[in-house]
Description:
- It is a single chain.
- The chain is extended, with a radius of gyration of 20 Å.
- The protein has helices at 2-9, 19-35, 46-57, 64-69, 78-82, 98-103, and strands at 40-41, 44-45.
- By secondary structure, the protein is mainly α.
- The chain has a two-stranded antiparallel sheet.
- Helix 2 packs across helix 3 (46-57).
Amino acid sequence: HLDELYKIINPERGNEQSLTEQLKPASEHLQQVLDGRDKAVVGTTYKHLNDLISKIKNCPFFTEKRAREVEEVPESTEAEAEDFVHIKSEDVPHADSDEVQSSLPPEVLPEQPEPEQ
């Protein structure tokens, strides 16, 4: 649902409408998400989207503690930036491994039934 929301709140280049004409409905959609209105949009409701965004925002993955745990990477020179890092497939942990599973955010909200119209 977030991908669909993205499509209706972001102006498109090469569109026949002016930027101002595209931003008006986009801002209205964003306001309704912020208000958590129980109105249907992109296969769900603004309220469900608000809850989902709040859950993502409050996920421990985005806390300061998590940010401090991430090792600082030194800035590379332009020459180094052009080099690629080659990783052997056996060095990549399997998706079901404890290492990968422990780094995933908590379970997201279950799919909400579509509101009756």
